[in-house]
Design goal:
- This protein has a single domain, classed as Pemi-like Protein 1, Chain: D (Ribbon).
- Helices cover 42% and strands 19% of the residues.
- It is built from 4 helices and 4 strands.
- A hairpin with a 5-residue loop joins strand 3 and strand 4.
- The radius of gyration is 20 Å and the shape is elongated.
- GO terms for molecular function: DNA binding.
- This is AbrB family transcriptional regulator.
- Keywords: DNA-binding.
Length: 86
């Protein structure tokens, strides 16, 4: 990790919503991008927390839940899948 990203203090950063074309957006400082290992074009997802706060995550929680269900089904019907694979 770069020296700048190690020294970066997230709590010292206030992000501001700005007009970008006909939309609004948030500009992330390059130090924060480096710390999160993000680059232009990467996606991350907002996840509302029970306390009302917001968590930004690099993975899609809906996809993670779908994969969890798929694993359960594959485990439950493993004999059927094995027979079909012959």
């Amino acid at each position: 990790m770069e020296e700048a990203s190690r020294d970066y203090k997230l709590e010292d950063t206030a992000l501001q919503i700005r007009k970008i074309g006909n939309s609004v957006g948030v500009i992330l400082p390059k130090e924060l991008l480096a710390r999160l290992n993000l680059k232009e074009g990467d996606k991350f997802y907002p996840v509302e927390q029970p306390d009302g706060s917001l968590r930004l995550s690099p993975f899609n929680p809906k996809h993670a839940r779908t994969m969890e269900i798929a694993r359960q089904v594959m485990h439950e019907y493993r004999d059927t899948f094995a027979a079909l694979a012959k």
